[in-house]
Amino acid sequence: MKCKKRVGIFFLNIFFILVCLLCLIPVLYALGVSLNSHNDLLSSNFSLLPKNLTLDNYKCVLFEKPFFLWLKNSFTLSAFTVLVSILVAIPGAYALSRMRFKGRRTILKLLILLNAFPAILSMFAIYRILRPLGLLNSFTGLILIYIGTMAIFGLWNIKSYFDTIPKEIEEAGEIDGAGDFQIVWKIILPLARPSIIVTAVMVLIYVWNEYIFAVTFITSSGKYTLAAGLYALQATDYTRNWPVFSAASLLVSIPVLIIFFCIQRYMTSGLTAGGVKE
Amino acid sequence: MYLAPSLALIGIIVIFPILYTGYISLTNMNIYHWFNPEFVGFQNYAKAIFVFDSGFLQALLRTILWTAVNMVLQMVIAYIIAVLLNTEGLRAHKLYKTILMFPWAMPGYVSILLWKMGMFNNEYGLLNQWLGKLGLDGVRWLDGNVSAFLSCTLVNLWLALPFMVMVIDGALQSVDKSYYESATLDGAGFFTKLGKITIPLVRPVIAPAVVITIFTTFKQFDIVYLLTQQQGSKTGADIHTVITYAYEKAFVTNNYGYSAAVSVIIFILLILFSISANKELKEGYR
Lengths: 278, 286
Description:
The complex is a heterodimer.
Chain A: H1 2-35, H2 56-64, H3 67-98, H4 104-115, H5 123-130, H6 139-164, H7 167-175, H8 180-191, H9 193-209, H10 212-217, H11 226-235, H12 238-268
Helix pairs in contact in A: 1-12, 2-12, 3-6, 3-9, 3-11, 6-9, 9-12, 11-12
Chain B: H1 4-24, H2 43-50, H3 56-85, H4 93-100, H5 102-105, H6 108-119, H7 126-133, H8 145-173, H9 177-185, H10 190-218, H11 222-229, H12 242-251, H13 256-285
Helix pairs in contact in B: 1-13, 2-13, 3-8, 3-10, 6-11, 8-10, 8-11, 10-13, 12-13
């Protein structure tokens, strides 16, 4: 019996190793291609493990393409978007979670329905709004779009978390004579840190990965984000660029991967050791 | 008052475009009537719904098929993987879980483009290289309708499975193990346990995630667009979903009025679906 079980586990391990390989294969292949020198690619005996190890493709991305410029643009855009999104979402979420006013439930329901509208479909309408305002080909316009698109998500996400914080904590603060601002700043925010971090990271990843608005509304390649740059790179004669493209795509993905695996902990850590003990 | 900034932003970027789309949908705005669109009533809607050749109904049916196929495959495969991950005695399950998360963590468009160029490419894609080693002819994966649809499904599964596996895995861990023990004592078989214990207990936990996934699958744009419809590298396969269809009508053929009408129809469908899904969810929790 025990022996049989061991054999089962052995096969299970083999199964999972295969599944994991399957899962990683496009990325591993890209890594292999990016480390190969150009000529190997089209020869028939190309292998995953590079025979002529070279970093040329990475050098090409970093120094021949405006990689650092695009990186800077991506940073600027994501930083502003995240900052404004969070600053706007926190008071809104607080009001929706704590205050009882007319139309509150309607607003909440309406937000969910509005969220069902695919952002891509409003692209043309947004174009017609931004053009007269002179916000085409400008970061301000793009940031405005990103903040607006993520606003409902941010509101709901933070609001749901505020709902789980017991009211008693605030009442204690109120008795001590704290105003709304102080309560939010000193009591709620420290407690809600996990949800704010998760929200911020989701917004960050969205901006970092967004390409279709970026290539539509930004017309000069000097203002491209990394995602838009990468998209443009593959859209123009990609056959020749394939090793360079794989190198670039891996470089672009690394920050997102790091951030993603870092916030795993926050995703699970809820309200650690709450303030109100019963 | 605290809500004002949020609502103002949502008003500009979400509500106004929707209203404006509604307005355009009633006009004949296109490349010839850019500045002077005329009011045409419900003509665009009629064209989308009643003229079968317009392609909208095909796209809608295809999208429904796409959503159904993907959801069924996703649920079944994710369930199998999650159950196997929870097998007792599997020591490395944490390591496997971390690796399986990878496709979720990668930027979506990067993964899709890597699939397109690395795996599906006709000359040097990995899939055709493997076929070549087996002495078979390469397949033009993204050119035919059926093969392109299957390729897109494969990529979607690859992208979406990690999330589903994690959700089901979490749900399975919340099930009390003692139920199974007493069921085994009562002589219940594998399928009885699955039908009577696992599914009823897991269902309410994973229901919201499933609804969200149905939405994202239905609204999927990137995979179909990047794999087959990208401007300058169209593959010839016509596997429009409703979203890529509306996108093409606006930005490729510049038929804005018609595209807007299609968008409004999609929006109405999504609203109806979300209302019915919400009802289901609420009843599930009772």
